[in-house]
Amino acid sequence: MKHKFILFASCLAILPIHGQAQPGTTPAARPASAQPAEPAPYVRDGNGTVCTTAPRADWLPEDEMRLLAQHRGYRIKTFKIANNSCYEVYGFDRSGQIVEAYFNPVTARLVRQNIAR
Question: pLDDT truncated to tens, each residue of the chain (117 aa)?
Fold first, then answer.
C-alpha cells in the first residue's frame, strides 16, 4: 500500500497545480467545444463552501491529503473536515502567511483560500 501511495504522490507532483495559468488555456484560446458541459462539482452557497457531494467512501484518506497539502507548500497547524464536504487546513503558505485553505476531498483541488493580512 505504501508503494502505491508513493507512486500516486509522485504522479501528482508532475501535474499542474489548480489555478496556475498554463500556456494556451485562456478562455479565448480554448475552442467552445472544450468548455465544460457540466457545472463544477462544488458550489458556494450562503451557508459556506461546499467542496463535494461525493460519499465519504470516495474521499482521499486524511493522511494522504495532509501529505499533498504539505507537498504544495502548506505548513499545517490544524487539519479538519469542514461543512461535511471539505478538507480544511489552517497554517502557513510557502511565503509564511497565515492561511485557511479548503480542498475538495475527492480531487484534492484547492477550492478556496483565505490569507490573513
Answer: 555 545 455 544 444 444 444 444 444 555 555 555 444 454 444 447 789 999 999 999 999 999 999 999 999 999 999 989 999 999 999 999 999 999 999 999 999 999 988
**Global pTM?**
0.60
For residue 18, being part of any structural domain is answered with no
CB 87, CB 65: distance < 8 Å: yes
Structural domain includes residue 14: no
Domain enclosing residue 66, as ranges: 41-117
Q: What is the CATH number of the domain that holds 59?
A: 3.10.450
CA–CA distances in Å: residue 78 to residues 20, 58, 66, 83, 104: 25, 23, 10, 15, 17
